[in-house]
Specification:
Blueprint: E1 4-9, E2 25-31, H1 35-45, E3 50-51, H2 54-57, E4 65-68, H3 75-84, E5 88-91, H4 99-112, E6 116-118, H5 126-136, E7 143-151, E8 160-161, E9 164-165, H6 178-188, E10 192-200, E11 218-225, E12 230-236, E13 244-251, E14 255-257, E15 267-270, E16 273-275, H7 295-312, H8 321-339, E17 345-346
Parallel strand pairs: 1-2, 1-4, 2-3, 4-5, 5-6, 7-12
Antiparallel strand pairs: 7-13, 8-9, 10-11, 10-17, 11-12, 13-14, 14-15, 15-16
Length: 353
């Protein structure tokens, strides 16, 4: 039985997946610029084939696919490098930093014929999987409005490490939109086509001299979808609210709200009737070795399984390049809207050819 040979680039978050547990994959090489992070990957995946850079890893003939968990501003560049080296790619979010990078990723995937998947955790949170199931069953009726939030208070704890500033220092919130945008878009299948975004910042030094020219801690955007529906997306790093990734889907017959981070549980409302039903057990669909607790609401095991299964079955993964760009590009445009004092902007289409 052939096993997919994975090379993991990027310690820290890159060490939180289960390529070494899946029955159809194995980790054959790991890479990081820093020795301590390489060692974390080595110990996590029990792999002694070490590289000191992604550039070296993609040349390794013992690797079929590369897991790109490098800093966010490098994701597109590193994914394209791996694809051009003949490797399939699973990448951390976001897919890209600019619209040009979005198009370059699409072009490279099409030119190489290789598989690209974005590891967006919100797609495989149990609430999101339940919402997809209920939408397919028609329980919502018509979903006419959605709202999703990614609040990450105290992200400033990650602005520095022992080497100085990290890529997170002053990072524009709407350049990291996918933990929010994936919730509505994966359920309804819609695309975001227009946006007005408002940003908020203060006189913090972080907002005065960051590498991105970003003046905002928090950004809130109001989108129009290609079906004429409304969606509010909010992302922020500095606010009086616990960390939460959540959404609410408003339908003509049913509404479903994820936990709000303030103690309120998930809830379904149908007219005046509100209930708090248990969610289905989705882990039963996983291979037994993967039925484990994992990060981001249990999503990491599902992301592992989806990428490996797509390669084994030679099919398109659920979060392929077009899905990845559909979740990423609206945030890029939203940030531009905020920089222009909330000017309404169109979002270019990256639809499948």
């Amino acid at each position: 039985m052939r096993r997919i040979r994975i090379g993991v680039a990027g310690g820290e978050f890159g060490a939180q997946f289960f390529w070494h547990v899946h029955p159809r994959s194995t980790v054959t090489a790991v890479a990081d610029l820093r020795p301590e992070r390489r060692d974390l990957l080595r110990r996590t995946y029990r792999c002694d084939r070490l590289h000191d850079s992604l550039e070296s890893l993609v040349r390794d003939r013992e690797v079929d696919a590369v897991a790109v968990f490098t800093p966010a501003p490098l994701h597109a560049r590193h994914a394209i490098l791996a694809l051009r080296a003949g490797k399939h790619v699973v990448s951390a979010v976001p897919a890209a930093m600019t619209l040009d990078e979005c198009q370059a990723l699409i072009d490279t995937v099409q030119q190489t014929g290789l598989t690209y998947m974005m590891a967006e955790t919100s797609v495989y949170r149990p609430e999101a999987m339940a919402a997809r199931q209920w939408h397919a069953q028609g329980r919502f009726g018509e979903i006419f409005y959605t709202e999703a939030e990614y609040w990450h208070e105290r992200l400033d704890d990650l602005f520095h490490d022992s080497h100085g500033r990290t890529w997170r220092y002053g990072f524009p919130p709407m350049h990291y939109p996918t933990h929010a945008t994936a919730f509505p878009l994966r359920v309804t299948g819609e695309r975001l086509v227009e946006v007005r975004c408002i940003g908020w910042g203060d006189d913090s030094p972080v907002l005065q001299d960051n590498a991105y020219g970003n003046p905002f801690w928090n950004e809130v955007a109001f989108f129009t979808t290609d079906r004429g529906h409304a969606s509010r997306i909010a992302v922020g790093w500095h606010l009086g609210h616990p960390e939460v990734e959540r959404a609410t889907w408003y339908g003509s017959r049913m509404c479903f709200a994820m936990p709000n981070g303030l103690g309120g549980p998930a809830a379904i409302s149908e007219s005046r009737d509100v209930s708090h039903p248990p969610l289905p057990d989705f882990q039963a669909a996983l291979p037994p070795p993967l039925r484990l607790p994992s990060g981001h609401g249990g999503s990491h095991v599902f992301l592992t399984h989806e990428f490996v299964s797509a390669l084994v079955e030679e099919r398109r993964p659920a979060i392929d390049i077009h899905e990845a760009v559909a979740y990423t590009a609206p945030g890029i445009v939203a940030h531009q809207s905020a920089l222009r004092d909330g000017e309404v902007l169109r979002i270019p289409s990256f639809a499948r050819a």
